[in-house]
Every structure is written in structure tokens, then in C-alpha cells.
Amino acid sequence: MTYIQEIVRVKQEFLISSNERFKVISSNSAIEFATSIIGDEAREIVLLIIMDCKNHVNCYQKIFIGDATKSTCSIREILKAVLLANVTRFILAHNHPSQDLTPSDSDIQMTKKLKTGSK
């Protein structure tokens, strides 16, 4: 009998203890958390923030790393990471190294696709 095994590696940064977990209470606090992780990066980074049902951050993953002006995202890979983490709440964020916070057309389209795909 032959068994086929698939090993899926998901690198997530876990927070040290439940007492130190950050709680997301607003969009501003989500921005604060994301900025603390990727705010000073020179390249565009897409950050997946995984939370429990009470909005405490369990872990995070730098899911895509781009260049100074863009990062290409795969909705499939984002949702795979969410499903493997076995959670119901997540936030996706990315930085803008140029400091221009205006969402690009690709930012808007990706957000719409992620919203549709995660229903």
C-alpha cells in the first residue's frame, strides 16, 4: 500500500503569550498593528493578520513581498492560509513605501475579489 503525503508549510509569526496579544478594536488599531510589522519596509508587503473570535491577534504572516511599487497577490493563496489557520476572522493589509496612501486600481480589484471569495 502506498501513501501519498502532502506537507504544507505556512510560516506564521505567533505572538508570545495570550496576555500579550493585540486586540483589534477599530480600523485605526488594525492600521497600528500592521504599521508596527510592515510600516518601515522598503518593498511592498502584504500582511495577513489572523484573529480569534474576540479580535485578538493570534498570528500574522507576510504573505506576499513585492518591489517598491507593487505586490502581486493570489486570492487563492490568501484564502488557503486563512483556511489552514482554521480561523473565521482575518485582516489583509499592505504598506505603500511611496507614502502615497491612495488605493491603486489593483488594490480595489483585489479587495473586491477577496470579499467575494471569502463569503
List keywords for this structure.
119 residues; 4-stranded antiparallel sheet; globular; 4 strands; alpha+beta
Task: Write up this protein.
The chain is an alpha+beta fold. It contains 3 helices and 4 strands, in the order βαββαβα. The protein has helices at 27-38, 75-85, 105-117; strands at residues 13-14, 45-51, 57-65, 89-94. The chain has a 4-stranded antiparallel sheet with strand order 1-3-2-4, sandwiched between helices. A hairpin with a 5-residue loop joins strand 2 (45-51) and strand 3 (57-65). The model has no long low-confidence stretch (mean pLDDT 83).
Q: In a nutshell, what does this entry contain?
A:
The protein has 119 residues and is α+β, with helices and mostly antiparallel strands. It is built from three helices and four strands, in the order E-H-E-E-H-E-H.
